[in-house]
């Protein structure tokens, strides 16, 4: 076997003993630290709970720390940024993987009811965009099409407004400060205050209505989809052309809101109303 490059060393989690045993212990250690949050756990406490000798456990902890999965403050261990990133990726994958299958019958009923393009959106892995994971196109000759796999910025889309309306304030503040808020059309909202006011309105109404944010000819209606824990899991959208949908705004808003409630219920959300 060729030697490893000195420029890119790989941290050794368990230099002595069984590597298989060390790997098998990693989920247990991470689970214990997640349960100990936010206070953390000492080497002695982790050793007592896992049954791993302190010397062996210290090697494992140092390896995890070098990879960013743990941090240590005053000899007390906490989960690190990489552990949280992995958890978020797993949750995102689970949500996006099962959501389309669960939502599809409700999407089909909605599409049949309104005869407009119906879209299911989910948060992108980088948490900067809404990704369109399923869609059923309208039967109209003039319609929104070619949606699945596309994405739109959170700040400038019907689905993104819904996502940001139900995400924590700290996330919204950080996102709006860091994202380049490009004015895609003359109607695109870019001011932080006006965007936050819109998110408040979305929460109050339970639906977003976005006119011409990315394309001046498009009118979108979006409603939240919540998971069993009450977190925003996705968004259901009706997308149409302004000339046809404007006079149907109340009807389409009510229809997409009802579809969001239905899909949320299928995911285990127990609220009486969304």
Radius of gyration: 23 Å
Q: Tally the helices: what do you get? A: 9
The unreliable regions are: 1-18
- The CATH H-level superfamily of the largest domain is GAF domain
Q: How many DSSP E strands?
A: 9
Query: What assembly state would you assign to the polypeptide chains in this entry?
Result: single chain
How many separate domains?
2
Fold and architecture overview:
With 274 residues, the chain is α+β, with helices and mostly antiparallel strands. It has 2 domains: 19-79, Winged helix-like DNA-binding domain superfamily/Winged helix DNA-binding domain (Arc Repressor Mutant, subunit A, Orthogonal Bundle); 92-266, Beta-Lactamase. Helices cover 47% and strands 19% of the residues. It has helices at residues 19-36, 43-50, 54-66, 81-114, 158-166, 169-178, 192-205, 242-245, 249-266, and strands at residues 41-42, 70-73, 76-79, 117-123, 129-136, 151-153, 208-211, 218-226, 232-241. The strands form 2 sheets. A 6-stranded antiparallel sheet has the order 6-5-4-9-8-7, with helices on both faces. Helix 4 (81-114) crosses helix 9 (249-266) and helix 5 packs across helix 7 (192-205). 31% of the residues are buried.
């Amino acid at each position: 076997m060729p030697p490893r490059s000195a420029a890119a060393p790989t941290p050794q989690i368990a230099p002595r003993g069984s590597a298989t045993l060390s790997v098998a212990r990693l989920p247990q250690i991470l689970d214990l630290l997640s349960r100990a949050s936010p206070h953390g756990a000492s080497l002695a406490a982790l050793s007592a709970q896992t049954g791993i000798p302190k010397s062996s456990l210290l090697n494992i902890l140092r390896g995890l720390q070098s990879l960013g999965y743990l941090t240590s403050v005053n000899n007390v261990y906490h989960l690190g940024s990489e552990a949280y990133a992995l958890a978020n990726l797993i949750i995102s994958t689970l949500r996006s993987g099962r959501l389309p299958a669960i939502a599809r019958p409700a999407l089909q009923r909605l599409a049949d009811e309104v005869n407009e393009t119906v879209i299911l959106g989910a948060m992108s892995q980088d948490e900067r965009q809404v990704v369109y994971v399923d869609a059923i196109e309208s039967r109209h000759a003039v319609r929104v099409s070619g949606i699945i796999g596309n994405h739109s910025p959170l700040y400038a889309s019907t689905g993104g407004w819904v996502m940001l309306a139900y995400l924590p304030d700290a996330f919204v503040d950080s996102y709006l400060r860091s994202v380049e808020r490009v004015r895609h059309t003359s109607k695109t909202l870019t001011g932080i205050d006006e965007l936050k006011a819109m998110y408040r309105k979305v929460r109050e109404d339970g639906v977003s209505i976005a006119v011409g944010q990315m394309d001046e000819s498009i009118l979108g209606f979006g409603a939240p989809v919540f998971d069993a824990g009450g977190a925003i899991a996705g968004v259901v959208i009706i997308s149409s052309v302004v000339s046809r949908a404007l006079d149907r705004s109340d009807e389409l808003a009510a229809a997409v809101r009802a579809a969001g409630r239905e899909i949320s219920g299928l995911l285990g959300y127990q609220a009486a109303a969304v």
